[in-house]
Design goal:
3-stranded mixed β-sheet, 12 helices, alpha/beta, single chain, 298 residues, 7-stranded parallel β-sheet
Length: 298
């Protein structure tokens, strides 16, 4: 299969490209910069020049592929809602180019979209939050819209994807901890975040596009929920910073934009995903990676 991958040079995208090529697939990777194009070509992928802003370049990439994995997203949280609406437009363009065929489209979302039952892990087939509540849900709404037009689309929902360099939302949280001189959790810190090693996530994307099951929702979750207190403790040990509890009303001043997540309980299950894809995570856990965190000590 020849797979068009957006976000092909990103943290997860680079691993997905390597996973696809190792499994015998060809990869056409979206890229806009010369240095990243060289790295993409060195990995064995074909470079497709373009960007998320250039919808025509996306349509041209789709025309050259047997399937699409859409991973690219602008993570600038200062304009988060606008970026989510941009993603809606990108998915619409990708879907329109796939209409009338059975070529698969894999769209990326987050497990938080399905955290609609307090105290219970998000399930693949559970009710989802709308974009009026969480802007990122625009991606899933766009997927549903193109599915209604006959596009073979499925969704991969991501948790905190990690290695020793990056850990999803925990990475900016670590920047906050270093700036504040302390690692904090909200209240008792027992609220949970799901997690998965980036190589396990890459394998799930490969399995998802190979199965090409219309309308499927997959959770790339290896650990159902790691408590924020355990996360803060691990980072504190690694960076030699004190660990403390803060009250909910203190969270906005301490965490900034991350306060919308810091105290929330967001566990997620991947039971259905494992059964449907035969996916078995094998990477090390989040806490182990945090204890080997690759950051400067200053």
């Amino acid at each position: 299969m020849r797979v068009f991958v957006t976000g092909a040079t990103g943290f997860i995208g680079s691993a997905v490209v390597e996973e696809l090529i190792a499994a015998g697939h060809q990869v056409l990777g979206l890229c806009r910069s010369e240095d990243k194009a060289a790295a993409l070509a060195a990995a064995g992928a074909e470079v497709h020049r373009g960007s998320l802003e250039d919808l025509d370049s996306l349509v041209a990439g789709v025309a050259r592929a047997d399937g699409v994995i859409h991973l690219a997203f602008n993570h600038d949280f200062s304009k988060f809602a606008a970026n989510c609406e941009d993603d809606r437009r990108v998915i619409k363009a990708l879907g329109s180019a796939l209409a009338g065929s059975d070529r698969p489209l894999i769209v990326t979302s987050g497990t938080g979209m399905a955290n609609t039952a307090p105290g219970r892990p998000a399930m693949e087939d559970g009710a989802v939050i709308g974009s009026d509540v969480i802007p990122r849900a625009a991606s899933e709404e766009a997927a549903a819209a193109v599915a209604a037009e006959g596009v073979n689309v499925s969704v991969v929902r991501l948790p905190q994807v990690h290695d020793t360099f990056k850990q999803g939302l925990i990475t900016p949280a670590i920047e906050v901890f270093r700036a504040r001189g302390a690692c904090a959790y909200v209240g008792d810190g027992l609220n949970r975040w799901p997690a998965a090693h980036f190589l396990d996530v890459a394998r799930l994307y490969r399995l998802a596009i190979e199965k090409a099951e219309p309308g499927a929702k997959y959770h790339a979750v290896a650990e159902e929920g790691v408590s924020m207190r355990d996360i803060a403790d691990a980072v504190g040990r690694r960076l030699k910073l004190p660990v403390k509890s803060i009250a909910p009303e203190e969270a906005p001043a301490f965490f900034g934009w991350l306060a919308m997540f810091a105290g929330h309980d967001m566990p997620a299950s991947s039971e259905q995903t494992r059964r449907r894809l035969g996916w078995r995570p094998t990477g090390q856990g989040l806490i182990a990676d945090l204890e080997r965190l690759q950051v400067s000590e200053t």
